[in-house]
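Honest question from a wet-lab person: if I give you the sequences of every part of a complex, can you actually get the arrangement of the whole thing, not just the pieces? Trying it with mine:
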Amino acid sequence: MNAIIAEGLVKIYRAKSGDIRALDGLDLAVEEGSVLGLLGPNGAGKTTTVRILATLLRPDAGRATVAGFDVVRDAHRVRTVIGLSGQYAAVDENLTARENLVMFGRLYQLPHAEARRRAGELLDQFALASAADRVVKTYSGGMRRRLDLASALAGRPRLLFLDEPTTGLDPRSRLGMWEVIRERVREGTTLLLTTQYLEEADALAHGIAVVDAGRIIARGTADELKAQVGGERIEVVVREPAAIARAVQVLSRHGDGEWATDAHTRRLTVPTAGGAQALVRIVRDLDEAAIAIDDVGLRRPTLDDVFLALTGHTAAATEDGNGAGDGISRGDTAGTGGGDGTPPIPIRRAVEQTPRKAE
Amino acid sequence: MTATPHAATSPTGGIRQAVSDGLIITWRNLKRIPRIPELAIFAIVQSIMFVLLFAFVFGGAIPLPDGGSYREFLMPGIFAQTVTFAAATTAVGMTDDLNKGIIDRFRSLPMARSAVLSGRTLSDVVYNGGILVVLMLSGLAVGWRVHTGPVEFVGAVALLLLFTYAMSWIGVWVGLSVPSVEVANQVGFTVLFPLTFLSNIFVPTQTLPWWLRPVAEWNPVSALTAATRQLWGNPNPFAAAGFPAEHPILLTLIWVAVLIAIFAPLGVRRYQSMSR
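Yes, you can. This is the full assembly:
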């Protein structure tokens, strides 16, 4: 059963400089108890999607249900079953962590004693017990994010929306955050997570939906997405431009495909499934052939690579072009699949050439 | 749908939930005051500065038409000025909540929709009530006295707090309409300073040019000041007979009703339109 369904969501922000079509017919389905990662660059429409599903924003067209409740007509019922945390929802920095959690628990309509008990429970779970009675203003970024997530859980929601839960966190805090999120998922919470990092979607989500310019342009598992962009690649930068041809010759037996070369950057690239082992063999061969190198490494696909492969433009370019039609149209929309027993549909290149009109 | 722990919550929440959620937000807003003591301290210092400036610097140059103590004339005006600035307090608090994202959090919770605004206005009434107490003590120190009974005293305090409540609703609307705390502050001062100076707070309206007199006498802040002076038996001069001179209490109540009737719906509409 699908806990979240969105069909043809359209959201247009009116601005003096022209209307911005933030969502352009977005479709989504998240199976109960699963984790969907909504992956996309800034301005792709991730936050707008979450805000609509969390009843903070009304869609201009399309419809969405959360736990079977319509997000517009039954907004209040939706609010009883969801928790929202992320870059825009916040905690009160002038209260202590405990005061925040008790307050949010009370506003989730828990009785006072129950709200207090729940607050204590969450403080322990999120390793905030020792700082529980400190004003949040004094918290580090990581602690604040953990408290933010804990606040979203004060009412024991069945569905959790996390909007870029680790943006701006240092690597250690990010790992800590992932751990607490995984814990929620093990407990059976349905989770919709937005992120700019493929790595994060990979670490946390069962299914990934790639958003660009307000639509889902691809969906599948992390492995399928990576396969789409060619998986891992080995990159070699030779010191002398003159050595490129000889290097290609030496390395031709390595890699799983043709070597691509860029004379300007002296860079040679090849897809590989061999991982670090392949890298070691390449370095050895280059050394034996006495070809000087400036850099060599194993590159995992990044969000940029996924975007390049799916859309023909980089993720960064989307931000500038997120206005009403940036000339590059993508169309393929789909749910995450799997919800009704069908296997996830492989990622496809977008085929539609004209943006869908708002209803 | 499977049963949830909140299945009993009705979609609208009901009056009881509205009250209980409103009080939770009130508590939260009041809890912030001791955590940022600078805000309350500067609000009080600002009012005391006005007391000192006018009681000791300008006061000597402002004779009252019927005689009487200028300081006793001044204090009810200072109280009225202070509660007028409640609009700025509310606006700043509202904009701050909005920009920090806490309002979004509240809007995602199954709480009464009215609670954020009712809690904000109520807590600002309590906050300004506290500031009034401090100012009354400073007033007593410079020679201000109440010459009537406890009923009149409480009546004037009630008028001051009602007025605070009305001003708070203006603050809600402004706070939800401006982009930043700085702008909220700026709007507050640009509108509220002329409003409190074009009044009977610091000078008897007789001293104003003829065309300004009606503006000053019908000014809601003047009505509140005159009502308070009348109730406490403090000097309450008027240039001419007329409705503001004869019925300051009634005029204050009318103003409170009018301001709430205009700005509460505007504020509520602003709040609701955030989902657009």
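Two things worth pointing out. The first helix of chain A runs from residue 46 to 53. Chain A touches chain B through 40 residues (CB under 8 Å).
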